[in-house]
Amino acid sequence: MVVYVKTQGARIIKEGKHLLVKKGDATYHTLFTYKLKQLLLFGNIQVTHSALCQIMHSNIDTVFLTRYGRYLGRLAPPESKNVFLHKQQYHLLDDPVFGIRLARCIVAGKLANMATLLMRIKRSRNKPVAGNIAKQIQSLMPKLALADSVDSIRGYEGRGSALFFEGFRYGFVGDIGFTKRVRRPPTDPVNSVLSLLYTFLMNRVYSAVRIAGLDPYPGFLHTIDYGRFSLVLDLMEEFRTIIADTLTLSLFNLKILQKEDFVIQKPALAVSGQSSTGNSPDVTADPIGLITMVDGEAGNFDLPEQRMEETPDSAKQTTGKYPVKLQPDAFKRVIDAFEKKLTTIFFYPQAECNLTYGDAIIFQAGHYRKVLEGQVDVYQPILLK
Predict the structure, then answer these.
(1) Predicted confidence band at 279 (pLDDT cuts at 50, 70, 90)?
(2) 148-156: long-range contacts, CB 8 A cutoff, minimum separation 24
(3) Among 141, 140, 146, 151, which Cα is nearest to 96's?
């Protein structure tokens, strides 16, 4: 079970073998530690010493974020004791042939998923321009197959991502102000939601990497650096489109999120907004976000990702705009939608069984480990159909 604690000023205390989320004398939640896999704390949440001891004793991955979802740090369970596996991870960093092959597989999966989503947008929204952009992304695949360095592979990933976000805007019903990907800070509602969902996704992938017994730092596509979870960022790539991008489309197109659910965060200015209320549509009912979509179907903040390598200061985005943040009620709706997305079931041929998206993340981390250990020759990312 994954629990999100968002009530500002709340305290987490220990009572017996359980944890209580309290504010004042009121108890908001009782957390059964034997069920708890991950705890995400947003903003001003206090944790007592005895509660921290219980969290560490129960090996609960505890993530600290700002009120609006920017990643701060984590209290993680003990590292895997498999030093031989970790030694193999670092040994392979010095094997350029292996690194190129693995990075190429990761990027090929990401490019394929981005092109597939854009083709869905073309069909479901009747936007030929999205299909044209999808073909441009597909045209990168033969070049990627011939890439002889990780730097070249990163270049194709960057070009593919730039093209994708040019076409991504055509997937929305109506104009909601999205023109391009802006990360730091997100300056429109779509970018705000994308950054938040990528943060949630990163935390799930991190947990999957730890479950697989892997060291989260040494990756092949993302450059290694002090404190950077390069492996986590590598394994995120195939799931960005499958989970976060499709979910963002559904949240806006199904009117789960609307303009009044966002506030511009101006310095030294209190801004109040009014959130929409009522029952939300089923976010998983939008066919554009399903793992498989046949041609006949036409369905109607920020994590410290540091992309492939550091961006020079002269190239950093400066928009001159204020950050856009979610209202508290809308924030909860995004969390609920993300959790519902991760419990959606699909058939995955490689596993030869039905999996939820959450289980698929864990499965792919285990698959990645098998590649590192030589049990499997090629890493196979999960693909939209």
Answers:
(1) low
(2) 148/100, 149/96, 149/100, 150/96, 150/99, 150/100, 150/103, 150/220, 150/221, 153/100, 153/103, 153/104, 153/107, 153/221, 154/103, 154/107, 154/221, 154/308, 154/309, 156/107, 156/111
(3) 151
99-108, 190-199, 276-285: segment of lowest average pLDDT: 276-285
Same topology between domain 2-75 and domain 83-372: no
- What does each C-alpha distance from 98 to 86, 92, 103, 221, 372 come to in angstroms? 16, 7, 9, 11, 9
Q: Count the alpha carbons within 13 Å of 170 in the hemisphere toward its beta carbon.
A: 22
Using alpha carbons, list the distances in angstroms from residue 311 to 71, 153, 307. Answer: 19, 17, 8
Segment 201-240, tens digit of pLDDT = 998 999 899 888 899 999 999 988 888 899 999 999 999 9
Calpha distance 144→334 (Å, rounded): 35
List, for residues 19-53, the tens digit of each pLDDT value.
999 888 888 888 888 888 888 888 888 999 998 88
Torsion of CA 274, 276, 278, 279, to 10 degrees: -140
The 8 Å CB, 24+ separation contacts for 227-230 are 228/304, 228/306, 229/202
Look at the pTM and tell me if it is higher than 0.85.
no
Q: Determine the pLDDT at residue 55.
A: 86
What fold is seen in the domain 83-372? Four Helix Bundle (Hemerythrin (Met), subunit A) (1.20.120)
Architecture of domain 2-75: Ribosomal Protein L15; Chain: K; domain 2 (3.100)
**Token pair of 203 as six digits:** 């935390």
- Residues linked to residue 46 through DSSP beta bridges, in sequence order: 11
Chain-wide mean pLDDT for the chain?
84
Domain boundaries, the chain: 2-75, 83-372
Token output for 144: 């990627």
Give me the phi and psi of 29, to 5 degrees please.
Answer: -150, 150
